[in-house]
């Protein structure tokens, strides 16, 4: 989708920056207003984030609303919850896999099979496939993976790199020690 945005805004670099911020954050445009879900976002906050003045943001909104193809995309954008940054404090492990360009689909199937065979409990999978940049897959698993599992994934033909972010080593930083809710993979209960 960013490829489409870049094409439409190739002659307007400042507007392209605004449009990319909107796409990356799931901010939609409806009736000349900016929304993150159902929450209206100010033009000022987008202008600050993009490093442009408010006039550029207004011109971007106007251009999007006048262009049918862009309007049909931007009015449907929604923010997406990701557990990627929260996982380490929940005691989960994050596996970030980068693929060689254009080789995302066939590798994804092989990775899913390996995780299934190794009984890895998957909490979330997020895939980012870009035409012009590297393809990336984020997998969040409940328990630490064994090295043989990671080795099998690394041996898949089009896997370029793997980064693993493990749970907080200091158990005092885990969320279950911060609050009243005790986390358990099978239940959530309040202490008595």
Give an overview in words.
The protein has 192 residues and is an alpha+beta fold. A hairpin with a 6-residue loop joins strand 5 and strand 6 (135-141). It has a four-stranded antiparallel β-sheet with strand order 5-6-4-7, with helices on one face. It has a three-stranded antiparallel β-sheet with strand order 1-2-3. Strands 8-9 form a two-stranded antiparallel ribbon. Residues 177-192 have low confidence and may be disordered. The protein has helices at residues 2-8, 13-25, 43-50, 54-66, 68-74, 87-90, 104-117, 147-154, 175-178; strands spanning 27-30, 33-36, 39-41, 93-99, 122-128, 135-141, 159-165, 182-183, 188-189. It contains nine helices and nine strands. It has two domains: 2-74, no CATH class; 87-183, ACT domain (Alpha-Beta Plaits, 2-Layer Sandwich).
Summarize the structure.
The chain is α+β, with helices and mostly antiparallel strands and 192 residues long. It contains 9 helices and 9 strands. The longest helix is centred in the middle third of the chain and has 14 residues, at 104-117.
Distance between the first and last residues' Cα: 49 Å
CATH architecture of the largest domain: 2-Layer Sandwich
The CATH topology of the largest domain, please? Alpha-Beta Plaits
Per DSSP E runs of 2 or more residues, the count of β-strands stands at 9
The ordered string of helix (H) and strand (E) elements is HHEEEHHHHEHEEHEHEE
CATH class call of the largest domain:
Alpha Beta
Number of helical elements: 9
* Principal-axis shape: elongated
Radius of gyration: 20 Å
């Amino acid at each position: 989708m960013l490829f489409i945005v870049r094409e439409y805004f190739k002659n307007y670099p400042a507007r392209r920056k605004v449009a990319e911020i909107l796409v990356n954050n799931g901010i939609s445009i409806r009736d000349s207003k900016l929304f993150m879900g159902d929450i209206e976002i100010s033009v000022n906050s987008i202008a600050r984030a993009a490093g442009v003045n408010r006039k550029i943001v207004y011109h971007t909104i106007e251009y999007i609303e006048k262009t049918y193809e862009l309007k049909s995309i931007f009015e449907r954008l929604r923010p997406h919850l990701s557990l990627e940054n929260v996982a380490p404090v929940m005691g989960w492990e994050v596996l970030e896999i980068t693929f060689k360009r254009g080789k995302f689909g066939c590798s994804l199937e092989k990775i899913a099979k390996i995780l299934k065979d190794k009984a890895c409990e998957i909490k979330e999978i997020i895939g980012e496939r870009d035409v012009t940049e590297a393809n990336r897959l984020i997998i969040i698993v409940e328990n630490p993976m064994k090295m043989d599992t990671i080795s099998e994934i690394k041996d898949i033909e089009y896997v370029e790199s793997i980064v693993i972010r493990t749970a907080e080593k200091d158990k005092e930083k885990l969320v279950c020690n911060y609050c009243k809710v005790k986390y358990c993979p099978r239940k959530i209960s309040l202490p008595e």
